[in-house]
């Protein structure tokens, strides 16, 4: 969905945050390397674009209006998300001077890794990172082969031959389109019902698939999938177009559930919680930048 014409560009939001922090358009302009007239014009343009006054100006400086304070908080979230995106994109680029190579499952790479990499950049700006993505089985294979300094997988156990540590918690959810009959259910799904239903699932080897199959083992295992897809994005698209119920990470559907594009279906009697783990070759604890990144994941 395209951005609304009322959403200012990123540079304008950064300027607004600087004014709110420094209390002066002039000081904010100097910090960002632009002239004060240009900064003032940009703020006025943003006020026209949004349609509300953002700053109270006086001889002592500038401060956000009551409405402006709300916009400042929203802008801070947008700028921080953009910084995390930039850190993630930078790590995806193959670089000859890379000092840390990370391979991560898709869920971890899409929804957690940008924030972790941003934190690493803040404490160790000279560390160069290369990030690769794979399903959990392939992550384990890459780490065992020495192709990565650190891996991140989804699943109930640490893969054989690897050491590991839990760095985050996740939960699988069953979601459907609002038009699906399950969206109007008044009672939770039972394990037997879920096991008997042809779901849209990730491919074999993914941590999501492994956790679901283990959770449904007491009910005879999962039925043959209606579709097998290779990413959370594809799963969400399939669910929204009515292809059938989908089981995927709760991290992946926060926005879709909040906006009503998907509906979560409660499930009883089935443990769909799962840990997310950092992994490394057994007997070789992470060192250097890998150890630093591992420590940051636990702090966050």
Compact summary:
With 300 residues, the chain is α/β, with parallel strands linked by helices. The protein has helices at 10-22, 25-32, 36-50, 66-92, 106-111, 113-123, 136-144, 191-196, 207-216, 232-240, 254-259, 289-299, and strands at residues 55-58, 61-64, 100-104, 129-133, 150-154, 162-176, 189-190, 200-202, 227-229, 246-249, 263-265, 267-268, 273-281.
Explain what you see:
- The chain has 300 residues and is of the alpha/beta class.
- It contains 12 helices and 13 strands.
- It folds into 3 domains: 10-84, Orthogonal Bundle (Arc Repressor Mutant, subunit A); 86-167 and 276-299, D-Maltodextrin-Binding Protein, domain 2 (3-Layer(aba) Sandwich); 169-275, D-Maltodextrin-Binding Protein, domain 2, CATH 3.40.190.10.
- It is 44% helix and 21% strand.
- Strands 3, 4, 5, 6, 10, 11 and 13 form a 7-stranded mixed β-sheet that branches. Strands 1-2 form a two-stranded antiparallel sheet. It has a two-stranded parallel sheet with strand order 7-12.
- Helix 1 packs across helix 2 (25-32), helix 4 (66-92) packs across helix 6 (113-123) and helix 6 crosses helix 12.
- The longest helix has 27 residues, at 66-92.
- It is flat, with a radius of gyration of 23 Å.
- The relative contact order is 0.13.
- The mean pLDDT is 90.
